[in-house]
Amino acid sequence: MAAYAALLSIARSTHPNNESLFSSKAKEIVASIHDYANFLILFFQEFPHKVSRWETRIRDIAYKIEDILETFMWQRIQSHQPLHVKLDDQLKNLTVEIGLIAGEVMEERPAYKPPSSSRLLAATGNGSVIGLREDILAIKMRLCGEPSSGLQIIPIVGMGGIGKTTLARAVYDELCITNYFDVCAWVVVSQDYSPHRFRKVLLDSFKLLEKQMSGDEIGESEIALKVFQYLKRRRYLVVIDDVWDKRVWDDIRCIFPDDNNGSRIMLTTRQLDVACYPETAGDVHEMSFMNDSQSWDLLKQKVFPDSLCPPQLENVGKEIARRCAGLPLAVVLLAGVLSPVDKIQASWEEIAENVNPIVGRELEEILSLSYTYLPHHLRSCFLYVGGFLQDVNIRTSRLVRLWIAEGFLKHQNGCSKSLEDEAEEYLEDLVKRNLVMVASRKSNGKIKSCCLHDMVRDMCIKKARDVDFLHVMDGLDLPQGLMNERRISFSRFYADNILGPTFRTILCFQIQKFSSWLSELEVINC
């Protein structure tokens, strides 16, 4: 993601509006860099899952170009007169390198294909329904409340690990539901979705394939027709689990007949825009976090399924449950850690002190899917949020100003929207994707403050560090190995202790000692 942010920066620095700063010889090279940067930015936006092959090379070259250009522009502005600096000599080799990468990308530019995943059919395990009683009743009412109504989509939306599939499965497995519908089917879409496999799974579910025939031997139109004809005049329930893209509905809508007989489709997704996309979608059912009491009940049920929790473990057990911050999957993962451990207070207290590191490894793979599916123009913005303090609400006005100052917004010339409005739209998009949570809204509905779930923040910090975008420090001193960081965040620090040659941004929330070198930097007081 650091590569994308650096490309935006050099595209801005090399914009034709700045050409008066450069000599006639340098203008041609700068214009080439500008074209290459814009081409690669477009590639990042159109094919976010295909950039990993080039991302490190692009990032390193973009950083070098960025440093040369910004140093030159700073010196040019300070001197108020032309500089005798051979900028073209400094940039010549880098221009060739970025041009070669652009050529590789152009030759192998792929057609759209979502990233692969290993699953297609849902597992049928019985998940716990603690904390879901009201949700189950609400979904059942929507499934069975109007038997003569037309086909309706019931979207269930929420962040990864919050229990969307558990809720859908709990309702789907109820006897009253299976008896109410003539046909029931469950299909997991995930990120390796293809229309052919989706329809083939339905064929298999309905046992419409002849024994000697495989789904691969039937054409797309024949599969669609078989499914449509089978569902025609039947009241059906189909669960479409883990949907990531609006195009899924465009591909499959034609196979579901609407006979005004109360047929229903349940759809689970992490993304609000996907949930709202089908034209027959009803009100979105948004999942809520568990409260501390529900988290503790779930933890007890998993660790002590056939016995009572020993009294000496209750307080530390409640603390462990509280530190899961209401995320059911985190509770279940911790229960798996606690179950084989000796049921003594010291062992549980040690786990209570390390909740995030223990479940973080397991949760990261699940939560990272939401990051993987982020458009690149949102990735920098999301990773930046991880630099703020834990359990502290972030003022939108502060966050927006910092995003703008960092150059994360790709603002088009002639765009009628202000940078602030565009940044607020970015934030709303992150909220709709269930990566950022709204802490409060203004009277006009706009986001006043926001925050990250603790587990999401841990994933965010790790991703930012892995791609050399931002490093969040726990202590006061900067380790020697981090002297080449671009952005760094401290909860508090002594200003004398920190100065790196490549630092672009220092986020600090409590300065213990103010040093004179800070006066030489541009400080944004948010």
How is this structure best summarized?
The chain has 526 residues and is α/β, with parallel strands linked by helices.
Spell out the key features of this protein.
three-stranded antiparallel beta sheet, single chain, Rossmann fold, 526 residues, five-stranded parallel beta sheet
What fraction strand? 5-15%
Shape: globular
Q: For the residues shown, what is the average pLDDT?
A: 80
* DSSP summary: helix tally: 20
CATH topology (level 3) name of the largest domain: Rossmann fold
CATH class category name of the largest domain: Alpha Beta
Helix fraction, binned, reads 40-55%
Q: So what's the oligomer here?
A: single chain
Tally of structural domains = 4
Largest sheet: 5 strands, parallel
Q: Unreliable stretches, pLDDT < 50, 5 or more residues?
A: 110-127
**CATH H level, superfamily name of the largest domain:** P-loop containing nucleotide triphosphate hydrolases
CATH hierarchy: architecture of the largest domain: 3-Layer(aba) Sandwich
Terminus-to-terminus distance: 24 Å
Helix/strand class: alpha/beta
Q: Using only CA atoms, what is the Rg? A: 27 Å
How many strands in all?
13
Name the strands of the widest sheet in spatial order: 2-3-4-1-5
Description:
The protein is of the alpha/beta class. Helix content is 48%, strand content 11%. The chain folds into four domains: 106 residues; 154 residues, 3-Layer(aba) Sandwich (Rossmann fold); 62 residues, no CATH class; 144 residues, Winged helix-like DNA-binding domain superfamily/Winged helix DNA-binding domain (Arc Repressor Mutant, subunit A). The strands form four sheets. The chain has a five-stranded parallel sheet with strand order 2-3-4-1-5. Strands 6-8-7 form a three-stranded antiparallel sheet. Strands 9-10-12 form a three-stranded parallel sheet. α3 runs antiparallel to α4, α17 packs across α20 and α18 crosses α19. The two termini are 24 Å apart.
